[in-house]
Design a protein that fits this description.
- Strands 2-1-3 form a three-stranded antiparallel beta sheet.
- The termini are far apart.
- The chain has helices spanning 29-37, 44-47, 62-73, and strands spanning 8-14, 21-26, 52-59.
- The protein contains three helices and three strands.
- The protein has one domain (8-73).
- A hairpin with a 6-residue loop joins strand 1 and strand 2.
Length: 79
């Protein structure tokens, strides 16, 4: 599935103590981080005060982003 030349991002954010991770996808990383930092994104990230970007990667289609997000979410936390 392609939506033109759009870029998608898979990203990982955490809180100040780096104890909680959130993995998500977006087509506008700058806007999405603004939402997280300003508590405009209700849910898990707001509940745990997740607003620090620790990792991101870019893909060229939404399906690749969804596949990568799923892969990252299946990783074990103890590295």
């Amino acid at each position: 599935m392609s939506y033109g030349n759009k870029q998608y991002y898979v990203y990982i954010i955490t809180n100040k103590s780096n104890k909680v991770l959130y993995i998500g996808i977006t087509n506008n990383l700058r806007r999405r981080m603004y939402e997280h930092k300003n508590k405009l994104a209700e849910g898990f990230s707001m509940k745990y005060n997740l607003d620090k970007l620790v990792y991101y990667e870019m893909t060229e289609d939404v399906q690749s982003a969804l596949t990568r997000e799923k892969q990252l979410k299946n990783w074990h936390r103890k590295w």
